[in-house]
Write a structure and sequence with these properties.
single chain, Creatine Amidinohydrolase, Chain A, domain 1, 3 domains, 6-stranded mixed β-sheet, 4-stranded antiparallel β-sheet, Creatinase/aminopeptidase-like, Peptidase_M24_C, manganese, hydrolase activity
């Protein structure tokens, strides 16, 4: 299908949706189409990509709003350019952080007593309550649809979602029992035995029949009139919440959220193997760029040789990504989830590009070396990674860090490092994992991101004011920074020492996983840098 015909199809879909909205009882003045699935997942399976289906925007984050006259898409700063390119002229891009949030826009722009439709399986209780609060001033209604107008605990893993080893399921845990609701066709004999050994019941249906929450069947010995049902309002969907007796609901963060955020040994080992794979990839890519494209290469800014007239295989973003995947797949990879970003330049970087890269690196180091008291949130330390960019009047629109799953989703809470208000909710604590990834993006020109995974650890401070205890970070990602992109005149002596110590550790840790040619490339990539006058 051509791009023009696909766009025409999506425009026709808008008309069809509006006809369904008008015919609905009650008639809908607007339809909210979020990105999330029934589990509030960031990455969703193909069948749950409703927002992508209606808008054509393929970014991982966003929300579509369709009214009888307008179609609007909200997304964050990572995707502004992509959304501009993918949306047709019938859609309006709403920039998160710059334009009003969707609930404010609805309250300001739709009529009194307007009815706004939502699939209650795809909206959290927190979000629904925020919407309802905003709508109340004009007596607007958030209406739970019985069917979507768009057609689309146990340490187990599945493949319901590409690139994230998760399984679509639900769980109810009582004082004495555990019930796991899942399509049994997905459950292997090994998993069945594991669940049986751990006293968990596999149930294929009945989640919404009330039996598991009101005590009439499953878990009946655990429920009485004084019992409470604990839900996490940030991840429990509105459809399930609406089936509960409100006076019995206890809304708190999930008790497994913080334990899930703490995982160490497997993660450290996975990042060592991943660092080796990335170094192998960079050494291979460096050779390809020089031999086939006449590029200067990873280490020098001098003009390269002539580009080959005839290449057997032309490098593309897809082909080089597949090559990196091959290096990673050659190693054992079932004990952790990795997340790394390095920016490289195979030609002659401009002074502006160098200064921007160096500012990002300085913020990256500032966060890595931070020491802070217990009780500090990621919101409080986000500024550390941005300050070097701010000094030049630059910034980035994305968050600075997120939690990492343990052979699970690459983005995992409940904590994060960000300017967003939600980063105030959960303090950082020892043994949590979080990324350190400042960046800078110049529209239509270039982009920079540097990312390591950090583990929060107890800091060995000289004093302990207020008996709070202090925390620091340990980095577990091992891949060199491209030194030809670093303007050492902008680094402090302490920052130069940090880079050299990091590179020295990279050599020691990664060499056992590399062949002789790769070791030599790594040795050159990690040579000490010195201050320039």
């Amino acid at each position: 299908m051509s791009a023009d015909s696909a766009a025409a199809g999506r425009d026709a879909l808008l008309d069809e949706l509006r006809a369904l909205m008008a015919a609905h009882s009650p008639p809908l003045h607007a339809l909210v189409v979020p990105s999330e699935d029934a589990h509030q997942s960031e990455y969703v399976s193909e069948r749950d990509k409703r927002r992508q289906f209606v808008s054509g925007f393929t970014g991982s984050a966003g929300l579509a709003l369709i009214t009888m006259k307008e179609a609007l898409l909200w997304t964050d700063g990572r995707y502004f350019l992509q959304a501009e390119q993918q949306l047709t002229n019938r859609w309006k891009l709403m920039r998160m952080g710059e334009d009003p949030p969707v609930e404010v826009w609805i309250a300001d722009n739709l009529s009194d007593e307007a009815v706004i439709g939502i699939n209650p399986w795809c909206i959290s209780v927190d979000t629904a309550q925020r919407y309802e609060h905003a709508f109340s001033k004009k007596h607007q209604t958030l209406f739970q649809l019985s069917s979507d107008l768009v057609a689309w605990l146990y340490n187990i893993r599945g493949n319901d979602v590409h690139y994230s080893p998760v399984v679509h399921s639900y769980s109810i845990v009582t004082l004495h029992s555990a019930f796991f609701y899942v399509d049994k066709r997905k459950v292997s004999v090994e998993v069945q035995n594991y669940m049986t050994e751990n006293d968990a019941s596999l149930l294929a249906s009945g989640l919404l029949k009330g039996s598991a929450v009101n005590g009439s069947s499953h878990g009946e010995n655990d429920m009485n009139e004084n019992s409470k049902v604990w839900i996490d309002s940030n991840s429990c969907c509105l459809a399930l919440y609406s089936k509960l007796d409100q006076y019995q609901v206890l809304m708190l963060q999930s008790p497994i959220a913080l334990p899930k955020a703490v995982k160490l040994d497997g993660l450290r080992k996975a990042h060592i193997r991943d660092g080796a794979a990335v170094v192998q990839y960079l050494a291979w890519l460096d050779k390809q760029m020089q031999e086939n494209y006449g590029a200067s290469g990873y280490f020098t800014e001098a003009k390269g040789s002539q580009k080959k007239e005839h290449m057997n295989v032309k490098l593309t973003e897809v082909s080089v990504s597949d090559k990196l995947e091959g290096f990673r797949a050659s190693k054992e990879y079932l004990d952790g989830t990795t997340d790394i970003t390095r920016t490289v330049h195979f030609g002659k970087p401009s002074e502006h590009e160098k200064s921007c890269y160096t500012a990002v690196l300085k913020g990256h180091i500032a966060l890595d070396t931070a020491v802070f008291p217990n009780g500090t949130t990621g919101h409080a330390i986000d500024i550390l990674a941005r300050t070097p960019l701010w000094r030049s009047g630059l910034d980035y629109r994305h968050g600075t860090g997120h939690g990492i799953g343990s052979y699970l989703n690459v983005h995992e809470g409940p904590h994060l490092i960000s300017f967003r208000p939600s980063a105030r909710n959960v303090p950082l604590q020892a043994s949590m994992t979080v990324t350190d990834e400042p960046g800078y993006y110049e529209d239509g020109s270039f982009g920079i991101r540097l990312e390591n995974v950090l583990i929060v650890k107890e800091a060995n401070t000289k004093f302990n004011f207020g008996d709070k205890g202090y925390l620091a970070f340990e980095h577990i990602t091992w891949t060199p920074y491209q030194t030809k992109l670093i303007d050492t005149t902008l680094l402090t002596p302490a920052e130069i020492e940090w880079v050299n110590a990091y590179h020295s550790d990279c050599r020691k840790i990664l060499q056992p996983y590399l062949n002789e040619q790769e070791k030599e490339w790594l040795r050159k990539a990690t040579e000490p840098i010195a201050a320039r006058c």
